[in-house]
Q: What sequence folds into this?
């Protein structure tokens, strides 16, 4: 049995929910991804994107997105948007700038609020200059149990010393009461 909730139904973050920062990822796949990132750093502040081989976390790829940092964080663009992320949001956002994203028709978030939430999370990674683990409630579908979206955001350089990309992975899990 899988350790995450099927997200074949497009979901939306609860518009009234607050984001909770976590000391460490709660999902084992996210913890393993963080350990891989730490290993790839090799004493540097961040690993370089060239240090990461997708086959090292092939089973997670549907849950992974990679965002390119534009103009020092003024905007971001998805370079990769995994199939499971597309299922969660209802869109394949590959190639899309955050400033141009549209909320799904079923979402309770406006385009602007959604753009701000995604951008704020990425800017937090830039400010922290390190990994960010978080969770936030997702809106329920029908009478399903309460669920949380767990995310891990990891900064990478792209041939230099500045953060050039942020890799994120997302899982939807039952809420721990």
A:
């Amino acid at each position: 049995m899988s350790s995450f909730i099927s997200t074949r139904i497009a979901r939306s973050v609860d518009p009234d929910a607050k984001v909770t920062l976590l000391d460490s990822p709660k999902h084992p796949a996210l913890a393993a991804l963080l350990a891989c990132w730490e290993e790839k750093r090799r004493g540097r502040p961040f690993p370089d994107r060239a240090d990461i081989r997708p086959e090292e976390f092939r089973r997670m790829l549907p849950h992974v997105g990679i965002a390119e940092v534009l103009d020092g964080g003024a905007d971001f663009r998805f370079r990769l948007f995994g199939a499971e992320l597309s299922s969660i949001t209802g869109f394949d956002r590959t190639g899309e700038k955050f400033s141009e994203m549209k909320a799904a028709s079923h979402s309770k978030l406006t385009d602007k609020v959604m753009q701000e939430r995604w951008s704020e999370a990425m800017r937090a990674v830039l400010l922290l200059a390190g990994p960010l683990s978080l969770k936030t409630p997702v809106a329920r579908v029908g009478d399903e149990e309460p669920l949380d979206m767990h995310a891990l955001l990891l900064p990478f350089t792209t041939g230099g010393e500045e953060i050039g990309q942020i890799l994120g992975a997302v899982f939807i899990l039952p809420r721990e009461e």
User: Anything to note?
Assistant: The domain at 20-52+59-174 is CATH 3.30.450.20 (Beta-Lactamase). The longest strand covers residues 163-174.
